[in-house]
Amino acid sequence: MKLRVAILISGGGSNMVKLLESMGADHLAEPCLVMANSASAGGLAKAAAHGVPTAAIDHKPYGKDRAAFEDALMAQLDAAKTDIICLAGFMRVLTPHFIARYEGHMINVHPSLLPKYKGLHTHARAIDAGDTQAGCTVHEVTAKLDDGPIIMQASVPILADDTPDTLAARVLIQEHRIYPMALQRFATYFINRY
Questions:
Q1: Which CATH number describes the domain made up of 3-193?
Q2: Which DSSP letter does residue 62 get?
């Protein structure tokens, strides 16, 4: 029996699509749900086109009640019998309330070479610091933001004329390459651990 993977998104879902495409017959996992925090997230239509069930839970009606929003997410994840959660451009910081429930079951892709540049604006920060390399990291999700054990990284050179946008475009190519590989690696680890 394959592991069941839910993917959480907020936007167009380009990493989500790469994950879906990677989960073929020889993969240890299969997609069970793509969920967004807005019904207008473009990735939902792409997931549906791949035949994957989708859900949207808008965070806005919950206001500052993050626990209630996360309870709604958890209800959907549990109903889908989720084994592994992949965060793929999910632009909500998850609270310890959520993470405690799924720690050891969640991975994320972050657009920097962690532990450098946790949080937002990673590309601008790397350029401003005079770094010669940037990249991306797939890591396990823990209660500390962008701080869990690293599964895989890839780097790209920072060019003299790079802007945050041109650097982001090159890093995204690497995200698309390594996130599917990291999911397969994590799924193997997951099976051996549980």
A1: 3.40.50.170
A2: G
Secondary structure letter of residue 37 according to DSSP: S
Measured distance between the N- and C-terminal CA atoms of the chain, rounded to whole angstroms: 14
Tell me if the pTM is above 0.70.
yes
DSSP string, 128-146: HTT-SEEEEEEEE--SSTT
- Active site includes 110? yes
State the pLDDT at residue 102: 97
Active-site residue, selected from the candidate residues 59, 105, 110, 176? 110
Give the tokens for residue 98.
Answer: 């959520």
**Distance (Å, whole) CA 106 – CA 43:** 19
Token digits of residue 17: 């699509």
CB-count exposure of residue 32 (10 Å: 0-12, 13-18, 19+): buried
Q: Is the per-residue pLDDT at 110 higher than 80?
A: yes
pLDDT at 193: 84
Q: Tens of pLDDT along 41-89?
A: 999 999 999 999 999 999 999 999 999 999 999 999 999 999 999 999 9
Domain extents for the chain?
3-193
